[in-house]
Write a structure and sequence with these properties.
With 541 residues, this protein is mostly helical. It has 12 helices and no strands.
Amino acid sequence: MTQDRTTSERVAFIGLDDKAKAALRDLRPLIHKEVGPALTAFYDKVKATPETRKFFKDERHMDSAKARQDSHWSLIAEADFNDTYVQAVLTVGEVHARIGLEPRWYIGGYAVVVDHLIRATIQSFWPRGLMSKGDPAKASEAVSALVKAAMLDMDFGISIYLEAIETERRRLDEVRVENEASQAALVDGLAAALERLAAGDLVGRLTGEVKPQFQKLKDDFNRAIDTLEVAMSRVSSATSGIQAGSDEIGVAADDLSRRTEQQAASLEETAAALDQITATVRRSAADAKQVSEVVAGAKTDAQRSGTVVDQAVAAMGEIETSSREISNIIGVIDEIAFQTNLLALNAGVEAARAGDAGRGFAVVAQEVRALAQRSADAAREIKTLIGASTAQVAAGVGLVGQTGEALRGIVGKVAEIDSLILQISASSEEQATGLAQVNTAVNQMDQVTQQNAAMVEQTTAATHSLKDQTAELADLVGAFTVGQRGEAGSGRRPAARTPAAPPARSPQPARPMSRPGATARPATRVIPSSSAAVQQEWEEF
């Protein structure tokens, strides 16, 4: 009854009386004809506009909506604004509210359709020719009825849209109030639990009933407290082990520091000794090089002496050859003297045969014979001397040859000595280079050892700082109260280990040595971290 009264009031207020309804009914053929093209123009705009295109899945969806709007305009053209019409309009408004269609698109779409229908209406009442007359009064009544019907339809649609929005707003307000009450209760419980947590109580939990949307928050908080309780129990259990480990590390770091200092001193001594050895080897290499040069000079002199001996041997050979030739010539002279003696003997015989006539010739023959005899004697003496000289020359040649062989042997030995000296010199240089590299490596090791010593000092200081921080952590953890769940989660506490005693040894004081290349390095100072860092790490945890 209320809806009927509201509809009647709207129809009466907008001016849709019987005359206007009759004019609207007269437009039914035109509306049936023109509403299709009008809707086509409207959906062309819908397709071209992304904001309206998103409300439709595909072309079939648009065609279905277009068909329903065509039927709705047929219902409007009947001008019978009854319950069927009102229900159809309500359905359209509810759909628009549900899909979130803004009124501007709804009104704009109506403008496109009504514009087309008004133009068609005016054209239908326009004069057709010179003899026909238009009827402005009917045209205005028809346009007025069409506009009023469209405005009434938009009034219903937008009203339903606004009513749906208002209904949704009231529902959301009720949900908001209910959620705020539930949220306030949850916040109160959470505040109380956080207050207990701030006091170090890890036993309290959120136990009250909450809305489903807050159930995850409640479960997450309780699970976080469970995890924190177990973690604190494990931290408390591990603190004793950390303390024992830090004690062992401290003892080992102190022992390592002393050993590192001794090692640094030993390396300094080793480096100094290597410096001396390197200098000695370099001097030996220089001496070997000088010896090599002297031996090379002796080798050159021996080679020249060998050349001179070879020349002397050649000269002796020539002398020996000349002696043999002279001996041969002396033999010829001796033969000539022998023949001359025979001729003189024959001449004496012939002179004796001649008697007195040959006496003078006999004297001459006697003199010639005597001369031949002296020549033979002289030739024999010379031959004897030549033979002795030849023997002596042969002996000299042999001695000179032996001297040459000895000199060649000396040259070979000197060459071998020179080669060995060169090898010794090269080896000495290689040893000097190797020792220099070893010395450099030892110096680097010394530097690394010094750095290690500084790092060990840092480690020792850090270990003592760790012990202090561990004690502070134990005090912080002890301020929390945990239940049986935390104790069960932590398991059995590890037994504290007794720090290992350092091995027995005879420490020797480090003796600093001054050596080339060794530079003093200041020890790095370690600043222990403050308890604020521990507190910050705990807050992050």
